């Protein structure tokens, strides 16, 4: 539904940021964070207690002491039980809190929450080891490892489950989401709207647009949310029951305006976020370097070499070898199914473009009839893709068993052979056919890394995305690659495959 509603009024002078008492500071408008954090605290505490119980149970069986259990404390209460079931769980909570794992900026999306939990685990082990050394306590290293690893795994699993519940709530009911007012020009605001609404799990719901350049340029244009101009932004936020203001593009660069808006929002409980014109660059590449009060956004070059890249290559080879070994019975069953569905070769080999423009032959299970290439010419006008790949939701060249393989992405499993040979990676841009000529413009930048079995565009919509959007996501991956990002994409791939979204 489109909107053409515009309102204009005299803008009152903004607040000058008069200091307010920290004791009377207004609570934030967003209400989901407090109960969600309380639930996480309970879950983390239970995880730490269960981890201590697991270690205690193993001790009983092995008859070896974590510490000297005969050392009594406070009228017969054993020091071990006091440390394992009181000090250690509370210590976990304290360190998780100091590490920022309950910060609402990191909850519900991205990998930062999990990275901080892992760093907390390392801190716990270091703290316990230092305490044991300082008190000359006899510690069982196996028990320390059991407690720390058990707690880490339980906390990560429980937080992943809590995140899925939060995402479900955001998608189905809108609870646990932030209602945003977008501030900027109409093209900038609509671009931000498109990005944030593509992922409902992110919990960002634009409810209004406030134009900084007047409503004349937007008159007659249908918009997904109401458009306003010349209004007091804070009054508009209250009117539409929003809790977040997103300053888009060039509006964030206006001298003094962003600072005065931040002053105006002090003590209101409304969040302020900035969507700068510098897009598709994130993570450790971006650093703020203030010089004489001027915050400069320094952008580092992409890291496409070094120790992290070597670890990625090693992980690819090891995972591919183990994967082929473990799933070999599944591969045999699939091969039998293909042979029974349509006589002919089990595998489909096609030349694709890889790292630095080198070509290789990709391995896939055959899902089409043998005359598929000859029949393609008669179906060109039915192509549903706007890019270099031919895509049809109901392609008549695919036999029934092949359709099931595509829906579950099992036809991609033989590409582990390409990964083992070093031609592909587990995560990266998808390898494109080599019969489309040179890769020109932005598309050629995809060749800076090895193509992957899965990638950012697969977990963001797959075949449902436009060609331009798929290229944009691939380039974002190239520019912001990291090992953590790879693991995040692999995890998201599992859910995308189970949902069978965009697979045809």
UniProtKB/TrEMBL annotation:
Chain ranges passing through the membrane: 35-55, 79-97, 117-135, 141-162, 318-340
Localization, UniProt: Membrane
Superkingdom: Bacteria
This protein's UniProt keywords: Membrane, Transferase, Transmembrane, Transmembrane helix
Region (Disordered): 1-21
GO MF terms held by the record: phosphotransferase activity, for other substituted phosphate groups
Location of the Bacterial sugar transferase domain: 312-499
Membrane-topology annotation of the record: Multi-pass membrane protein
InterPro entries: Bact_transf, EPS_sugar_tfrase
Pfam families according to UniProt: Bac_transf, CoA_binding_3
PANTHER family: COLANIC BIOSYNTHESIS UDP-GLUCOSE LIPID CARRIER TRANSFERASE, SLL5057 PROTEIN
Protein family (similarity comment): Belongs to the bacterial sugar transferase family.
Protein name per UniProt: Undecaprenyl-phosphate galactose phosphotransferase WbaP/exopolysaccharide biosynthesis polyprenyl glycosylphosphotransferase
Organism: Actinoplanes lutulentus
């Amino acid at each position: 539904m489109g909107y053409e509603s515009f309102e204009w009024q005299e803008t009152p002078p903004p607040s000058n940021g008069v200091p307010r008492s920290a004791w009377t500071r207004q609570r934030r408008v967003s209400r989901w964070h407090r109960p969600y954090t309380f639930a996480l605290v309970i879950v983390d505490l239970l995880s730490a207690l269960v981890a201590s119980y697991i270690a205690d149970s193993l001790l009983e069986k092995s008859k070896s002491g974590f510490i000297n259990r005969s050392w009594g404390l406070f009228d017969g209460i054993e020091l071990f039980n006091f440390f394992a079931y009181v000090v250690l769980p509370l210590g976990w909570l304290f360190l998780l809190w100091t590490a920022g794992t309950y910060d609402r900026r990191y909850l519900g999306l991205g990998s930062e929450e999990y990275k901080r939990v892992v760093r907390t685990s390392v801190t716990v082990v270091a703290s316990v080891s230092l305490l044991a050394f300082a008190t000359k306590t006899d510690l069982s290293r196996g028990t320390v490892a059991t407690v720390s690893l058990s707690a880490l795994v339980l906390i990560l699993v429980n937080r992943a489950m809590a995140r899925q519940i939060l995402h479900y709530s955001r998608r189905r009911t809108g609870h646990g989401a932030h209602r945003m007012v977008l501030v900027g020009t109409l093209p900038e605001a609509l671009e931000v709207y498109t990005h944030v609404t593509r992922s409902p799990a992110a919990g960002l719901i634009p409810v209004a647009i406030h134009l900084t350049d007047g409503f004349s340029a937007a008159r007659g244009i249908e918009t997904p949310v109401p458009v306003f101009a010349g209004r007091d932004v804070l009054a508009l936020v209250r009117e539409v029951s929003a809790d977040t203001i997103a300053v888009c593009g060039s509006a964030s660069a206006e001298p003094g305006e962003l600072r005065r808006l931040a002053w105006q929002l002090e003590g209101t409980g409304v969040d302020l976020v900035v969507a700068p014109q510098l897009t598709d660059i994130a993570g450790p590449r971006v650093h703020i370097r203030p010089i004489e009060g001027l915050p400069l956004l320094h952008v580092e070059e992409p890291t496409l070499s070094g120790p992290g890249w070597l670890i990625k290559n090693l992980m690819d080879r090891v995972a591919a070898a183990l994967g082929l070994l473990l799933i070999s019975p599944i591969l045999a069953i699939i091969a039998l199914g293909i042979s029974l569905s349509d006589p002919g070769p089990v595998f489909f080999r096609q030349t694709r473009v890889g790292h630095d423009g080198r070509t290789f032959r990709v391995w896939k299970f055959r899902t089409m009839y043998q005359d598929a290439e000859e029949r393609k010419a008669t179906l060109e006008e039915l192509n549903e893709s706007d890019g270099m790949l031919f895509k049809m939701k109901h392609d008549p060249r695919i036999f029934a068993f092949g359709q099931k393989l595509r829906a579950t992405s099992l036809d991609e499993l033989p590409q582990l052979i390409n990964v083992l040979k070093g031609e592909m990676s587990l995560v990266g841009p998808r390898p494109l056919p080599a019969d489309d000529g040179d890769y020109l413009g932005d598309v050629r930048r995809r060749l800076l890394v090895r193509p992957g079995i899965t990638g950012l565009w697969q977990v963001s919509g797959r075949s449902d995305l436009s060609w331009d959007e798929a290229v944009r996501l691939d380039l974002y991956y190239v520019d912001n690659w990291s090992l953590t990002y790879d693991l995040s994409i692999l995890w998201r791939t599992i859910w995308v495959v189970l949902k069978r979204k965009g697979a045809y």
